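Structure in, sequence out. Go:
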């Protein structure tokens, strides 16, 4: 199982947008995808509930945000995408980084 973590200590950097797009891409390729939303705003989880039923299914954990870090994916899952909150640190950061095959750090640049 491949685990992709989207992390940046700054809020508003595009973590949820990138997480949902990566999960959607994996699902469109035929993978069994699980999107873990560890952010208390739950934007990614809300996005999953709004996807048309005609699109490939993306599963999510039914845990509180803090428990995502130690939760196990469903048995048939091939790809996990974890959307982390801004300010991720301490044991939560260690846990999520320890699970990751890839870590993507989105950056937001304001053009003037």
């Amino acid at each position: 199982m491949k685990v992709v973590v989207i992390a940046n200590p700054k809020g508003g950097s595009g973590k949820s947008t990138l997480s949902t797009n990566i999960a959607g891409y994996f699902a469109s390729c035929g993978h069994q995808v699980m999107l873990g939303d560890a952010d208390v705003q739950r934007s990614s989880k809300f996005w999953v509930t709004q996807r048309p039923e005609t699109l490939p299914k993306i599963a999510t954990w039914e845990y509180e945000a803090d428990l995502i870090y130690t939760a196990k994916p469903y048995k048939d899952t091939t790809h996990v995408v974890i959307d982390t909150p801004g300010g991720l640190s301490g044991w939560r950061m260690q846990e999520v980084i320890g699970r990751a095959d890839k870590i993507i750090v989105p950056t937001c640049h304001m053009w003037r």
